[in-house]
Design a protein that fits this description.
The protein has 107 residues and is of the alpha+beta class. It has a single domain (2-106), classed as Glutaredoxin, CATH 3.40.30. The protein is built from four helices and four strands, in the order H-E-H-E-H-E-E-H. It has helices spanning 2-14, 36-40, 56-60, 90-106, and strands at 26-28, 47-49, 66-70, 76-81. The strands form two sheets. It has a two-stranded parallel sheet with strand order 1-2. It has a two-stranded antiparallel ribbon with strand order 3-4. The longest helix has 17 residues, at 90-106. The protein is globular.
């Protein structure tokens, strides 16, 4: 469900004037491939599959439904949990969007 809200957020960012250079991308955990279709149905956001040779989830210490906000050099700026901050709550949606905008503006 959170991915649908992220899809909406990406659409809003893409439609901003001037354009905002932000890309939201999902990364599926190793051995969670079977759930990909449930997450990606009805969205056009990129959805990547983590693999043993990369193991991003482990190396980044990712939790379920974590949003990693990265800077221009792909450095971690912060982590925002959509498990704890449900994006269906308008205040949480606005807060995450503002964090993304602030990060983009700082770059």
């Amino acid at each position: 469900m959170q991915f649908a809200h992220l899809t909406q957020m990406q659409a809003e960012l893409d439609g901003a004037s001037p354009p905002v250079p932000i890309s939201i991308v999902g990364v599926n955990a190793i051995d969670a491939e079977s759930g990909s279709v449930n997450v990606t149905t009805g969205t056009d956001l990129p959805w990547l599959q983590d693999v043993v040779s990369e193991n991003v989830w482990v190396s980044w210490g990712a939790g379920d439904k974590d949003v990693f906000i990265l800077g221009a050099a792909t450095e971690e700026v912060m982590v925002y949990s959509v498990a704890l901050n449900d994006l269906s709550i308008p205040e949480n949606f606005v807060a995450l969007k503002q964090l993304l905008l602030d990060t983009a503006a700082a770059q």
